[in-house]
Amino acid sequence: MKAEIEVLQPGLFSTIQDLGRFGYQKYGVPQSGVMDRYAMRLCNLILGNPQEASVLEITFQGPQLKFMESATICISGADLSASLNSSPVELNEILKVSAGDILKFGKRRSGFRAYLGIGGGFQSEELMGSQSWYEGLTEDFRLKKGMNLYFQNTGVKDAETYSHLKIDRDYLQATEIGAYPGPEFGELAREQQKSIFGNLFKTDRSSNRMAVQLEEDMENQLKPITTGPVIPGTVQLTPSGKLIVLMKDCQTTGGYPRVLQLSEKGQQILAQKMPGEKISFRKLDY
Question: Is-above-0.85 flag for pTM?
């Protein structure tokens, strides 16, 4: 039986996401999926869900949600001062919620994206093998006031556990991002190669789920490439000298030189960065 959660306030930008849709890039369909896979998987692991169970990805300013049925939930990732019925709740712990309870988020303390998981995962339309929301593809693409979210009502169960998880929260404050040389990296001058791995870059305020643009300019004498495949984590160098890091909702092809490719953990670190925060790249070997 499906149960409901009423969206009292939508927050800044919250979406249902899972691990993403694969196999459709050749048709121009973005991968989508959670920006921070570590936080999502941790959340589902704590709840005893399959790792691919869909979660609510919450960006910076969280929503206000009213539960119409009892449930078990967990919040991982960024610390956005969550509270249940005005009482603070801890991250990375199982929380029991009763019908009528209200979950709110407040001031940001660390990170940029939080993940709300629920026992059994959120239930939404599956399209091309994924429940991930994406504007222009799915009916919904962000929370709206008054809408309902659905989950499978399995009740709240008590379970003894003797497991212990070592949780990494250091990555939320990390500024060094591991990256591999991209296909066109070797075409850069030696000084340019050094500057990419030796300088600090500030994330631009225009950054979103499609891409994170870095503010600093680089000298660019490279010619555009024949349109080629790109994936989340690809770093492109634009003709104006800006570096753009493609993220989960990025296009599937591009014509700018691909100078770097972020590691999976590097993508997670960048996903938790506020616009205006500084990062650096650390060279990784294949």
Answer: yes
